[in-house]
Design a protein that fits this description.
globular, alpha/beta, 338 residues, eight-stranded mixed β-sheet, single chain, Rossmann fold, 13 helices, binds NADP nicotinamide-adenine-dinucleotide phosphate
Length: 338
């Protein structure tokens, strides 16, 4: 049972949340983690849980995989090739020891290729083992506009479309393993952007941060859409933003930001903390479809103009179904089990 935060803890948390820099930086995670009602991730109930973490070879995904395994969970990480998978396992053995690292496996998944999603999901269903959750973590800010082999702009596909397809393909397994949770790693950058479904692929105005923020906002809206449709199937859907953490992704895509903000960036474990918490905590004390940061549900908007008109959430859902060529259902509906 998660302890209820004290009134002091609530006041301190709210004061941090009012200031983006303090909340997103390591100040936010360090102060909040000292407040009451913040159990260590290693004490969360991981035994008997099987979790999937996408992009588990680097940054937040690597940290999340290690923390889940340290809490006793069995962890499957997705990586883009076998070399990265082998290097990840070696590193986990060095960092966390054999007992923890032995709970982690890997398989290959490229979110820029919907056929790879299908193959990966089919392998999970063939394992005939439960799956209690997914952390959709993999992502990147791409310097230029490019299309995937499926013909979609890659920021949109990697962050929004392919995770939608993967959840769809694994939905019957997640439902059969319930209670289970699907957690998506968005970014505070989405606070600057509203959802406009017809702009998701940035057809005319690609800028890395703009395309990224659009995709990250879409992740928040898609999470609520999933929760509305499948929240009573024993699967919880949540989305979290990690604040600002120093990872290989930030080093390569935002070198200026890294140079200026370096001293106050979180480490990857602090950035991944809420995703791990959402994956394993018994009682989250809040309904599904929520946006979280530092273990608390947060507002989805900081300014009114990022709210979308009524109907945009349904438009996103319809578009994802169409682009992914999937109609999500908790029952197995097709011959190949998807
Ligand atoms: N760090 C932050 O401050 C921060 C802030 C807000 C949000 N986030 C989000 O946190 C998540 C993790 O980012 P990070 O900072 O940990 O970055 P990272 O160190 O670069 O890790 C990103 C992971 O995503 C994988 N990935 C990228 N493209 C992929 C694709 N097409 N198919 C499969 N996997 C793919 C990468 O694989 P490869 O190693 O093969 O490239 C890597 O494992 C991302 O969704 C990011 O947007 C991070």
């Amino acid at each position: 049972m998660i302890p209820t935060p004290t009134p002091i803890a609530r006041v301190v948390d709210a004061a941090l949340e009012g200031t983006v820099v303090l909340s997103f930086s390591r100040v936010g995670s360090e102060v909040r983690s000292r407040l009451e009602g913040w159990p260590s991730t290693a004490s969360l109930p991981g035994d008997g849980r099987r979790m999937l973490v996408t992009g588990g070879n680097s940054g937040l995904g690597y940290a999340a995989a290690g923390a889940l395994a340290a809490a006793g969970a069995e962890v499957l990480v997705s990586v883009r090739d076998h070399d990265k998978g082998e290097r990840t396992l070696t590193r986990l053995h060095e960092d966390l020891g054999d007992d923890v690292a032995e709970r982690v496996r890997y398989d290959v998944l490229d979110l820029g290729d919907l056929a790879s999603v299908r193959t990966f999901a089919a392998a999970r269903r063939a394992e005939a083992a439960p799956l209690h959750g997914i952390i959709h973590n993999a992502g990147a800010m791409f310097p230029d506009r490019a299309e995937t082999v499926d013909g979609f702009e890659r920021t949109y596909q990697v962050h929004v479309l392919a995770p939608f397809a993967l959840t769809s393909d694994l939905l019957p397994l997640l439902a059969a393993s319930a209670p289970s949770r699907v957690i998506t790693v968005t970014s505070g950058g989405m606070y600057a952007q509203k959802l406009e479904v017809d702009q998701l692929e940035s057809p005319d105005d690609y800028r890395p941060s703009l395309a990224y923020a659009r995709a990250k906002r879409a992740q928040v809206v898609a999470t609520r859409a999933w929760a509305r449709r499948f929240g009573r199937s024993g699967i919880d859907f949540h989305v979290m933003h990690p604040g600002w953490a120093l990872t290989p992704g930030v080093e390569s895509s935002l070198p200026g930001f890294r140079r200026v903000m370096g001293p106050i960036l979180r480490d990857p474990t602090e950035g991944a903390d809420t995703a791990v918490y959402l994956a394993l905590a018994d009682d989250l004390g809040a309904g599904p479809g929520r946006l979280w940061h530092d273990r608390r549900p947060r507002n989805r908007h900081k300014v009114p103009w990022t709210r979308s008109p009524t109907g945009e959430e349904d438009a996103l859902w319809d578009r994802l179904c169409r682009d992914a060529a999937r109609e999500p259902s908790v029952t197995t509906t097709t011959a190949d089990g998807s």
